[in-house]
Amino acid sequence: MSEQSRIWIDAETKITDAPEDHHEELRLWLRLFSVTRLIENDVRSKLQSQFDVTFPRFDILSQLYRVPDGLILGELSQRLMVSPGNITSVIKRLMEDGLIVRTQNPDDRRENIVQMTAEGRAKFAEMAEANEAWIRDLTKDLTPADIRSLQALLQKLKTSVRRALG
Amino acid sequence: MSEQSRIWIDAETKITDAPEDHHEELRLWLRLFSVTRLIENDVRSKLQSQFDVTFPRFDILSQLYRVPDGLILGELSQRLMVSPGNITSVIKRLMEDGLIVRTQNPDDRRENIVQMTAEGRAKFAEMAEANEAWIRDLTKDLTPADIRSLQALLQKLKTSVRRALG
DNA sequence: TTGTTTTAGTTTAGGTGTCAAGTAATCTAG
DNA sequence: CTAGATTACTTGACACCTAAACTAAAACAA
After folding, report:
1. Sign of the CA dihedral A57, A54, A85, A35?
2. Cα separation values, B67 from A46, A95, A109, B71, B91, Å
3. Which residues of chain B are within 8 Å of residue A6 when distances are taken between CB atoms?
4. Which carries the bigger pLDDT value, residue B36 or residue A8?
């Protein structure tokens, strides 16, 4: 097998090509997963090389950027869909970098609010702009109508998943 | 904020609701990412609790299942879109579990072919069936037409991404 | 009030992920 | 034939990630 042809093979390429509808949902999931990973890998490597920031840190910053009053750690964990135990350590490193601050809520000392520093906001603004340009570039073969349709269908899928999860 | 309302907030919910088309691509990516993570988290936790297998191991097994002759490590790495260094350690553990075997290619001793054992095939068949049922359940609010449209649009997106990546 | 339960976050153990540097085998140009 | 590339894979350092067990604070209930 030539090197050139191998590049285009991935997780969803090789499944049985049965015309019956029985496996279409699985095929859909495999494609969803693979295209997401493809984009995520590209974004991650660009964030790393151009801004020396990891994808998870960027993810946290983008949440906090839109909420100047900050978020409780648990809220952050739910929005990012990652475990609470994970947030703890990533937050610590972002604090060490001076990009966010953390304050205990005096009215409920269990809660800790994190928010961005001015430095964090400035750095994130730069990254976000680049990120948006990357995404526009990656999606440039889609028409506005494609994007609207995809958006709507993904919303419908998400609703379906959430309903199934109870 | 009530607990009930918080559950439904996540990465793509809170972005600015500007009606201009300028941020639609980014919004699309955020939704794609969040719905993928939602499904992946559910599948991972079910694989763990019901079969004591991790998502990455399942991912490797599902590739090997369809290729009885096995795959070279590098091919596996490309298909799964993960780094070669990663494959090494996951493969080692799958071997220790007796689910796969590894053979050096005598014609090119740099290459190592991995393939499933009978035990691996049997265990995977069970998991794959459960997995397909989970996915059907998660997607059950989508019509066959929805699924076909999504499939086609994701294919178009993937082509766009691949073209952009060169 | 006081004992129980719930909630917010941390810690630990272990698996997964990248990148970069390293090794061994093969290829290739001269 | 042989020195320098290239290819396949491994290793090590470090970052993420989850689940489960833990601590501390607050809420609740008798």
Report:
1. positive
2. 33, 47, 56, 7, 16
3. 75, 78
4. B36
Give me the CATH topology for the region A53-166: Arc Repressor Mutant, subunit A (1.10.10)
Question: Which residues does residue A72 pair with via DSSP β-bridges, in sequence order?
Answer: A113
Closest residue, chain A, to B133 (C-alpha):
A26
In words, the CATH class of domain B22-138 is mainly alpha
| Phi, psi for residue A120 in degrees, rounded to 5 | -60, -45
- How do residues B30-56 score in pLDDT, each as one tens digit? 999 999 999 999 999 999 999 999 999
Looking at B22-143, list the stretches that DSSP marks H as alpha helix, in order from N- to C-terminal side.
24-51, 55-65, 73-80, 84-96, 118-138
Of the partner residues A21, A36, A155, the one whose CB lies closest to the CB of residue B36 = A36
Nearest to B135 among A25, A67, A141 (CB): A25
